[in-house]
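Please predict the structure of the following assembly.
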Amino acid sequence: MTKPKELLEDSEGIKKLLLANEAIARGVVEAGVRLVALYPGTPSSEIGNNLTFMAPHIPNFYFEFSTNEKVALEVAGAAAVAGVRSMMVCKGPGLNVAADPFFSLAYVGVRGGMVIVVADDPSMWSSQNENDSRYYALMGNMPMIEPADPAEAKSLLLEAYKLSEELELPVLFRTTTRVNHTRAPVEFGKIPKLSDKVEFDKEPYRFVPIPAVARKRHPWLLDQIAKAKEIAEESSLNFVEGSGELGIITSGVSFNYVREALESLELEAEILKLGITHPVPENMIKSFLTKHKRVVIVEELEPFLETHSRRIAQRDNIMVEILGKEQGYFSRTFEYSPRIVIEALAKIISRNTSINWDDIEEKEKSLPDLPPRPPLLCAGCPHRATYYAIRTATRGKAIYPSDIGCYTLSIAPPLETADILFDMGSSITTACGLSQVTDQDVVCTIGDSTFFASGLPGVVNAVYNHHPISIVVLDNRTTAMTGHQPHPGTGVTGMQEKVPPSDISEVCTGLGVKYVKVIDPLESVVDLVKEIREMVSWTKENRAPAVLVSKAPCALLTASERRRTGEYPPIYFVDSDVCNSCKRCLNRLSCPAMYLDPETDKAVIDETLCNLCGTCVSVCPQGAIKQEEE
Amino acid sequence: MSGDTRNTINIVISGVGGQGVLTLAEILAKTALASSHNVRVGEIHGMAQRGGHVVCTVRIGPNAHGPIVDPGTADLLVGFEPVETLREISSIKQDGYVLLSTHVQYPVSVSMGKSEYPSQKEILSELNKFTPNIFEIDAMKFAKKAGSSRSLNMVMLGAIIGTGLTPLTKQAAIESVTSAFSKRFEPINSRAVELGFEEISKQFTK
């Protein structure tokens, strides 16, 4: 909630409480970056959310929400090739989408500094996997820097640009959820002036990697990485802290947990904290391993530094015990905590922890079973009406390929309309595959932002190969899950300009879909059910894809608009004289604003939570849910 | 056996997405920074936020490096809702404090008849197994009194300061609230902080 304009304050030396993502947005300004392109993805989302509102106030700066991560990396890569500083930002799975240009960019290199921010998500708070992006640096031979906290998120970003320019290579700036979503004091630095446009100097035999060029660039890249190793050996980003018999090698957020664990155990140890984690400073690690009899490696997810350490120890014949994941002291899954590090270190040095966590866990187990409260579609969410209608129209018997967004939450009862999901855009393409090998109806759902990001090739594929699938586009006019960023269908750009929006129904017609309709899901649930039935039978008869755009703004946008204008429609209520306690509204909609009054056994609408969508009105067979008269 | 947090106060805030848990944590931390304290806030965004159980941490003091508060190390557990308070009770250290808003928000699983909501009495007796220091407040009542059910988190902010467990003053808290929101909401928010503060400081001095 630090306001974007606060991040533009030209007040060197002041300290502000910033999310690491806000610190990165500030770092963009302090580093004199000219262009940032990204597709939003949690845990990196707030970087773009701030930059889009900062951008119009920074002379000569350009920011865009690209249609997807591959596009973003190409846009930002070209800017850096032209000679200005640029940035691309994504979440872990987003880098998978951008993998193709990622590898080419390392071969051709850049002229202006370039940073690729990738936010991994250990514990999968909002991702479909927790793959460890550090291996991209290794596989693509791209230098990598890992900050440990919000202050480093900014200070190391400035270092990343220097490193990038020194090596003429993009730098991978790898964060994790607990860095991105931690708030801490961050000190502001100077804001430089940005230069005007640059002239693009042609150099095709560097920037067009035809085989003859690529064969020259690969050895060049390996030379640059050798240089990077020399830089890493001398860099202040890799440092030693404390002293003691025990050695600990760590990086990123785990550094904080190591510090807290040592304080808690009152244990002396020497810490080697690595800020540059590719290429690793081999000599530094070598002397560290030589100095200690036992070295513990603390890093979340895969044994990246651990494998490097073992490799160096083996190569240089160092007699040292390296303790980490291979002996089971640490896990390869989920994020760490001080406790995890305390328990592992206590085991290694044969000590007890000051807190008996087994006791606490025992006590916790004795608690009664609490009613679960998983995340779910918000009160007033238009997707609830659409999924209710899809399920009703197909009697729960169709296959429901889903996609990535808030609407994946329809997996839960009673909607239960998410059956298969791989990645962004896979709703349409998995529907294609399923329609060819089953006789079941296939109704897939995809959000508006996801449709533009990765849905289009799937639509073309369905038309070209005439797959009989029903595609419902859940158009809530925003990228809701990641914090309401605009997309091509909204008519707003990253620079906050108004442009003609791309119309999803027109796009589908243009791609050759013969059946395209648009409906407002909050208008009439009965009509919505009818429309879906009709679409499903059309696909069967015509052996071709059909599209229904279910269009109504995200409930959170509607709610904030109402708060802004102060204009509210009349409230809904359950007429308890008419309600016969059938509970259909509660059991079929699972709306968080409705509950059962334990005393009367009748449904009640909590008016402080209701977002006034009215979907429940048409679900009640008794007509007991009513709207107050104006 | 108590967690050694050495001059660092660990606060865990538990509630339901949409109740303003993240906003409260940020305002509390801004108040700490404005009062020259080191501070860390841990948040979870994205899918985890949608109407589900939300937990946030605030750590104030020189030894806060990372954002995580482990089980058994929280000095204060702030619960925006009874069941959500109980869900996080194992975070509390021995003789830690619990601040509990008594207003119930039924989870969908309860409305659908798939699970039962424990009675207030049962919740309190379970909390008591972890610590006797429990302070209740009907924050929804005070929020409505202040002028909006949405100011519930500001009532809780006042209540946190009212415990006297943090090194923060009510005045500093109100200043951060004022600078964070638009002028339009200032009277409601300040009043909400005052009401929460009053209610809990009254209970604490008893």
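Chain B has eight helices and six strands. Chain B has one domain: 3-137+163-182.
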